[in-house]
């Protein structure tokens, strides 16, 4: 009975923390630290020593060097790079279409779709 009560109180505490985090989602460096800590917990759960060491280093560096303005600037730069890549892929597709080779057109369409996916991911990261 005592163990059941302890387990229940731990579960309720975890749910409370989760609901508070959902109500106030972290952004910027806080979100980055939170993501690293979650990955670190998973690595510890699976006993992945190399991953643990790498994530601990990433967390130390994030704590020491991360600023919200610097992170935003880096993410904006990444979006700009991905936009340029999409433009290049669109040009490659137009060239392939001009040549009329269906195999090249399909290849360029796949590359363009991948570039657009990467751009979407970079844009999504701006809000984190």
Verbal overview:
The protein is built from five helices and no strands. With 128 residues, the chain is mostly helical. The longest helix is centred in the middle third of the chain and has 32 residues, at 68-99.
Tell me the layout of helices and strands.
Layout: H1 2-23, H2 28-46, H3 49-65, H4 68-99, H5 102-126
Characterize this entry briefly.
With about 130 residues, the chain is mostly helical. Helices cover about 90% and strands about 0% of the residues. Helix 2 (about 30-45) runs antiparallel to helix 3.
- How far is the first residue's CA from the last residue's CA? 43 Å
Helix/strand class: mainly alpha
Q: State the helical fraction.
A: over 70%
The whole-number mean of residue pLDDT values reads 85
The oligomerization state is: single chain
Give start-end ranges of low-pLDDT stretches.
Answer: 5-9, 11-23
Largest sheet: none
**Overall form:** elongated
Q: Tell me what portion of residues adopts beta-strand conformation.
A: under 5%
Tell me the number of helical segments per DSSP (H or I, 4 or more residues long): 5
Number of strands: 0
Note the run of SSEs as H and E: HHHHH
- Using only C-alpha atoms, the radius of gyration works out to 22 Å
């Amino acid at each position: 009975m005592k163990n059941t009560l302890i387990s229940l109180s731990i579960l309720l505490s975890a749910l409370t923390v989760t609901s508070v985090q959902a109500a106030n989602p972290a952004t910027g460096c806080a979100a980055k630290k939170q993501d690293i800590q979650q990955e670190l917990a998973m690595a510890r759960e699976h006993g992945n020593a190399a991953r643990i060491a790498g994530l601990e280093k990433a967390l130390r560096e994030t704590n020491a060097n991360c600023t919200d303005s610097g992170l935003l600037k880096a993410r904006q730069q990444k979006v700009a790079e991905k936009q340029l890549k999409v433009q290049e892929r669109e040009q490659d597709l137009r060239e392939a279409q001009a040549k009329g080779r269906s195999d090249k057109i399909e290849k360029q369409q796949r590359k363009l779709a991948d570039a657009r996916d990467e751009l979407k991911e970079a844009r999504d990261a701006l809000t984190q």
